[in-house]
Design brief:
Blueprint: H1 2-15, H2 24-34, H3 40-58, H4 68-76, H5 89-96
Length: 97
């Protein structure tokens, strides 16, 4: 986990943006490459699987802020609501479900 976060911080620092999108597939690709995994085509397939798996496991720790459901129920009565996610692309589909 420490190695993953080190790569993630390097990616963020290299972007130059204040709030960059973290590209989790690139993190996994870098990690696998550093561990000696070749060829790139095998890493490419595995990085997408690892990104989705990691997100699926990490979702077990996520909880909504207190009062969010009640607030959305109230707003739903007066407004048409939409969902906006800014998560890395590998995580979007699994997060919305």
């Amino acid at each position: 986990r420490d190695h993953y976060y080190r790569i993630m911080h390097q990616q963020r620092d290299q972007s130059g943006e204040e709030h960059p999108e973290i590209i989790v597939e690139e993190i996994w690709d870098t990690l696998l490459k550093e561990q000696g995994m070749r060829p790139a085509s095998a890493r490419f397939r595995l990085t997408a699987i690892l990104a989705q798996l990691y997100r699926g496991i990490s979702r077990k720790r996520l909880r909504p802020y207190p009062g969010v459901k009640e607030t959305l129920d109230i707003l739903r009565g007066s407004y048409r609501l939409a969902l906006r996610r800014s998560a890395p692309s590998a995580w979007r589909a699994i997060s919305i479900r």
